[in-house]
Amino acid sequence: MLFDSTRSLQSSISRSAGRDESGWVDVYSHSSERTANTAQPNMLPYKANASGLSVGVPVLSGARSLDVVINSHRSALNIAEDSQKLDGQSTKIGVVLTQPPTASGWQLAASGFVGRTSYDGQRGKILDNLSATGMTSLSSEYSSTEAILAVTAGYTTTLSKTLRFKGSFEGSYAYENFAAYSEGSNFSWAARKLGQTSGGISAGLLYQPQKNLSYHLRVGTQRRTVVKGAQASYTANGTSYSVGSGLKSENYYDAEVGFDYLGSNGMSLTGSINGFNSEYKINGATAYISLNWDF
Question: Can you say whether the dihedral through the CA atoms of 234, 238, 239, 240 is positive or negative?
Fold first, then answer.
């Protein structure tokens, strides 16, 4: 969930930050799932959906721009067909600094965000010999604080009158500090500090048949790695346990198609669809649309 929210936020600001002096709004939707894997039974299947909204307000414009951005992100995770459900609602605020392009076609951008996420969890069927039926359900409410730092280096070069090459390198560090919480009366989880890095590279083509219309095609790859807090600690009926198993790194591959249309009266419309999969059977899609007016 931390990787998905970070990835969605970085994609949102890379599409819009530093491009409009009057402010911008970006709306996106995200879904993913992982199928069961008999070769690795500890990797449980899941389905996830998320949506978000980013609002940017430029405080510096021109060759070097600085945007203040507020992001709201809602996510819903369903693990192993209702075995566990987890809903999250986060709000983040941060800044995005975009440097002017160099003569060689390179452009740098950096961003920093802080925020808070509230979680609601449900576990449907838990074995419990203290229950008359032998089964019980658990619920939880807890929260976390977050911080994200990211940098991007983009490169653009003209191939022909209507065709341009666009590539980028990106890296980020996401930190999440979970508060301790309880599930039911017999289970409690200790506070946990989670750190995760991700890095990626992408390449694509931008085709512009008209001055006010362009299309793009992009492919890319990302790798995420848990670098802090991989082990979680909990107490069940007064006995302490810890668990450190799980997927600590993974490679993702994605492809995207989209368009950008500049209308009359300062109106612009941008949209895209992105499909992705991973080496460990995760696949999904992200869609976004951005509509702006200059007044």
Answer: positive
